[in-house]
Amino acid sequence: MSKNRLPTRVNLHKKTILPTPTCELCNANLEDTYHIFLRCPMAAAFWNMIQIIPEISSLSDLHNL
In whole angstroms, what is the distance from residue 4 CA to residue 6 CA? Predict the structure, then answer.
């Protein structure tokens, strides 16, 4: 995750595997690692459901968490 090696839609789009890098869950943003784990409304709902508010500013902070 911290090395940006997950098969996100952005990474798969760069490799011409997918036609678009847009998140399929929210259709609003590019699906990169940061979006999947923090910015996507589905991710926010997950964090809210388990009652954790990640106060991080980078993916390396999330990795350490």
Answer: 6
Residue 34 neighbours by CB distance under 10 Å:
20
Query: Amino acid letter at 51?
Result: Q
CA torsion through residues 23, 61, 15, 17, sign: negative
- E strands present in the chain: none
**Is the backbone of residue 16 left (phi > 0), alpha (psi -120 to 50) or beta?**
left
pLDDT 10s per residue in the chain (65 long)? 777 889 999 999 999 999 999 999 999 899 998 899 888 999 989 988 998 877 776 666 766 76
CB 59 within 8 A of CB 33: yes
Handedness of CA 11, 16, 20, 25 (dihedral sign): negative
* Whole-prediction pTM: 0.76
